[in-house]
Amino acid sequence: MTPEAPVIFIVDDDEAVRDALALHLELAGLTVRPCASAAEFLAVADPGQPGCAVLDIRMPGMDGLTLQQEMVQRGLTLPVIVMTGHGDVPAAVRAFRAGAVDFLQKPFDEDLLIERVHEACERDRNARQAGIEAAEIRERTALLSPREREVMELVAEGLPNKTIARRLDIGIRTVETHRGRVLEKMGARNASELVRMLTRLEPGRG
Asked: What percent of the chain has pLDDT over 90?
């Protein structure tokens, strides 16, 4: 399946700014969707659509920072680049705390915006790919029996078969059998690869 092309959403109530940024990004080969307000963006945004969102902080109605919060509530995980013409440092701090990947003060170099947009789209692509891989690993884990899951957890801790057998009060041959089935069902060639797979589900693991 061919990955869907990223879309760059420009959310700004200033039509001249929207048109200028859209033209510059389109000339760079990017697909752009200008939106005149937060409400317009939310009406067309799709959680499955890759890309990024370039948001103006100060807009009538819902501003860019409030829009960030609303995106989180709706499961819209697009990376956010925040724009402002006011150099509002507290707003920048709030934007980063809300997950913005960049903060640009108007007027800014449009080539810099293109660079940051590409970086944001790459971040989005990596996050979506990691999500797909994690979902596949969860599906494989669901195929394991309760005992196989116990063995998998102990294998992932780096315990030898003899220790696992003693811990679970089963024979070493039985551990070997379960271990083989775990690796087969999980699609892992060895214990190290199994640990890497489980780390994708629990980043703090290992």
From this structure: 67
Predicted confidence at residue 1, as pLDDT, reads: 40
3-state secondary structure the chain: CCCCCCEEEEECCCHHHHHHHHHHHHHCCCEEEEECCHHHHHHHCCCCCCEEEEEECCCCCCCHHHHHHHHHHCCCCCCEEEEECCCCHHHHHHHHHCCCCEEEECCCCHHHHHHHHHHHHHHHHHHHHHHHHHHHHHHHHCCCCHHHHHHHHHHHCCCCHHHHHHHHCCCHHHHHHHHHHHHHHHCCCCHHHHHHHHHHHCCCCC
- Global model pTM greater than 0.85: no
Looking at the structure, tell me whether residues 96 and 31 fall in a common domain: yes
Domain check: are 90 and 183 in the same one?
Answer: no
Task: State the CATH number of the domain containing residue 19.
Answer: 3.40.50.2300
The first and second tokens of residue 12, run together, are: 């700004």
Q: Which residues contact 193 (CB under 8 A, 6 or more apart)?
A: none
Residue whose token pair is 């890497």: 196
| 177 CA to centre of own chain | 37
Q: What is the pLDDT of residues 159-170, one digit of tens each?
A: 999 999 999 999
Is the domain of 27 the same as that of 121? Answer: yes
CA 165/CA 175 separation, integer angstroms: 6
